[in-house]
Amino acid sequence: MNLALTELLEELQRKGLEAGLSVLNQRVPHRFTAVFKFDGAMMRNVAIIDKLGEVVPESIKVIPFENSFCQFVLRDGSFTTHDSAVDDRLQGHVYKGVLNTYVGLPISKNNGELFGTLCHFDFAPLDLPESEFQFLNQAVKVLPPYVKS
Q1: How far apart are CA 149 and CA 147, in angstroms?
Q2: Distance between CA atoms of 46 and 71, rounded to whole angstroms?
């Protein structure tokens, strides 16, 4: 296990999910790092880190599934857009050009059942190095014990 993953696990064990998300958020330029759970026709925020420390708007905490970028994570196994304003895959999407950066992966419960998503996102267009995407893939595998339903 690499040092960064060990640091993440230690923070999760000591302080819980939000502390772990903070570790992930510090590694990237994205403003937000969050876990959302599937809840019928909605995506509900379980935990979120805002790099700016501001009150997170309610419009980010609960999102209709059909308006979320999480729907593409469920469909494709992951979803990344570095600039949604110019991403042709998002034609007609309500958040095209609004939420410009999104990187998301699915989270499964310990029993393998799909729970929701782990994601970095921002209003500004941003890149995510491939090494960070790979780290996010490792992180999503250690999160399930710390994610409460």
Answers
A1: 7
A2: 17
The answer to whether 79 and 73 have CB atoms below 8 angstroms apart is yes
**DSSP conformation class of 85:** G
pTM attached to this predicted model: 0.94
User: What's the token pair of residue 52?
Assistant: 């700016």
Instruction: Give the residue extent of every domain in the chain.
Output: 3-146
Q: pLDDT tens digits for 88-123?
A: 999 999 999 999 999 999 999 878 889 999 999 999
> Helix, strand or coil for residue 12?
helix
In the chain, count of helices (H) and strands (E)? 5, 6
Contact 143, 118 (CB under 8 A): yes
CATH class of the domain at 3-146: alpha beta
Question: Would you tell me the crossing angle of helices 17-26 and 130-142 to the nearest 10 degrees?
Answer: 170
In the chain, the amino acid numbered 111 is N
Name residue 135's beta-bridge partners. Answer: none
| DSSP 3-state of 107 | strand
Q: Give the pLDDT of residue 1.
A: 66
149 pLDDT tier (thresholds 50, 70, 90):
low
